[in-house]
Amino acid sequence: MTELLKIILSAILGLGVGVASGILIEKYREKKRAYDAILSEYLNAMARGEGLNDDEWRRFAAVQRAGAWRLSTRELKNLADDVTGRGYADPYAAWRELLKHTEDYPKSFLVWAKRNGVDFADEEATAKAVSAEYSVKVSTPTRQGILLA
Fold it and tell me: What are phi and psi of 138, to 5 degrees?
């Protein structure tokens, strides 16, 4: 291989690595900006709302309105840690015991609510939607049984 070809190949390789790392850094910054915006919006709602820290339903509704369904499960846990670290109550405490069997809670619950148009601020509508969802899952058999006669 000639020296010129080595120089050209190393320049192309360097360009590729630079572009790839730039894309990864920008994706990280984008996720960080989204997380910071959601945290800021939630903290502003907590500061504005009287009694919001005491009402579990409205606290979870504030998380929903902030757009937390866009965050990953790890980011949602970090959000709860950041909120409790600032002296506010855990935003997921109301639902943690109720849905402890749910996989990747609260992410799956927030995505389900977004998909079904459920607003957690309305306690009665939320309870009806959750009960309808789980009654369908409970009443639907998972497989056919075999009758022995």
Answer: -75, -40
* Domain coordinates in residue numbering, the chain: 31-126
User: 3-state SS of 79-108?
Assistant: HHHHHHHCCCCCCCHHHHCCCCCCCCCCHH
Place of tokens 């990953």: 72
pLDDT digits (tens, 9 = 90+) for 1-16: 789 899 999 999 999 9
pLDDT tens for each residue of 14-39: 999 999 999 999 999 999 999 999 99
Instruction: Let me know: does 82 contact 46? Beta carbons within 8 Å.
Output: no
The burial class, CB within 10 Å (0-12 / 13-18 / 19+), for 82 is middle
CA torsion, ordered 53, 42, 133, 102, to nearest 10 deg: -90
